[in-house]
Amino acid sequence: MGFEAIDVKPVSGALGAEIFGVDLSENLTNHKSAEIHKAFLDHKVICFREQKLTPHGQVEFARHFGEPDIYPFIRGLSDVPEVIEIIKTENDTVNFGGGWHSDTSYLEKPALGSMLYALEVPTAGGDTMFANMALAYNALSSGMKEFLGQLVGVNSSAQNYRGGREKKMNELEGMRGKFIESSEVSVAEHPVVRTHSETGQKSLYVSRAHTSHFKGMTAEESKPLIDFLSDHAVRPEFTCRLRWQPGTLIFWDNRCTQHFAVNDYNGGRRHMHRVTLVGDRPS
Ligand code: SIN
After folding, report:
1. Quick check: is 153 in a domain?
2. What is the pLDDT of residue 178?
3. pLDDT at 161 over 70
4. Which end of the chain is more exposed for a tag (fewer CB within 10 A), N or C?
């Protein structure tokens, strides 16, 4: 099926598309929203330019594709708690999301997808990269696929935050005071090969940022394979890179992609609003 109500222009051979012909602040017709959903499943990452979205408007748009969630570690906006702010100030040298990962894979039901909306961006830099985990899976040998098919990954919210998430978060001026003190370490076991609940495609579901080890194996035994898979998953031919402008909204599928916020703009300021959607239990 082609598209009638929207224009869809792929941004790379691997994944990602820009969508034209949509004003996200208006009520979407069922037809448009169905086509956007199809573009999302086909391309895994979709990007809308020159949008004017309030936090309420972003949540309303998100509702077309699922139930907006509350992120467990960062306090949302007081009047729209589903929206968290991701800010890197001119004084920050560390950024949020600066490692390849899939959002909240340490939860029993990780986020289906995430929507990031740009309010302020640096004059150059601050792009986000995405990688297609179905392509990464398909490129593995049949022997490796068979082996991985039996493995369960143990994913932990503490994996990337040695010394404590709050301490690391407070190192970022832009994120200071937003950490939810009561939040605890979350650990979840998920298959390393995940079958997409809507497309039926198989994807790699493992990352250095969140996977601490494989079930039944030690961290030392697991590390070489986690490292291999994490490097393999983000080979250039599986990726795309998207540039932000104020008013850009990008919606990615966490079930079959990973992303990486590039930290190449020290001295610049970047301010985003993020909404995540409630997901299902990976199988
Ligand atoms: C994230 O990991 O959700 C943030 C991505 C970004 O800021 O580009």
Report:
1. yes
2. 84
3. no
4. N
Produce one character per residue of 169-203: b if its CB has 16 or more CB atoms within 10 Å, e if not.
beebebbeebbbeeeeebbbebbbbbebeeeebbb
Atom from ligand 1 closest to the CA of residue 262: 8
At 82-100, the pLDDT tens digits run 999 999 999 999 999 999 9
The catalytically annotated residue of 165, 190, 255, 259 is 259
Q: Is 259 a catalytic residue?
A: yes
Does the annotation count 274 as an active-site position? Answer: yes
Query: What is the extent of the structural domain holding 22?
Result: 7-277
In whole angstroms, what is the distance from residue 141 CA to residue 93 CA? 40
Q: Which atom of ligand 1 is nearest to the CA of 274?
A: 3
Query: Residue 208 is part of a domain; what is its CATH number?
Result: 3.60.130.10
Q: pTM of the prediction? A: 0.96
- Is 1 part of any domain? no
Strands 84-88 and 257-261 come out as unpaired
Q: Is residue 2 part of a domain?
A: no
| CA 128 to ligand 1 centroid distance, Å | 7
Distance of CA 145 from the midpoint of ligand 1 (Å): 29
184-202 pLDDT, tens digit per residue, is: 788 999 999 999 999 999 9
Ligand 1: residue whose CA is nearest its atom 2: 97
Question: How confident is the model at residue 50, as a pLDDT?
Answer: 98
Is the residue at 108 inside a domain? Answer: yes
DSSP state of 174: G
Q: Whose CA is nearest to atom 1 of ligand 1?
A: 97
* Residue 218 pLDDT exceeds 80: yes
User: Whose C-alpha lies nearest to ligand 1, atom 4?
Assistant: 97
Average pLDDT over all residues of the chain: 95
Active-site residue among 43, 101, 196, 273? 101
Residue 71 has pLDDT above 70, yes or no: yes
Contacts of 274 (CB under 8 A, 6+ apart): 71, 83, 84, 85, 86, 114, 115, 116, 117
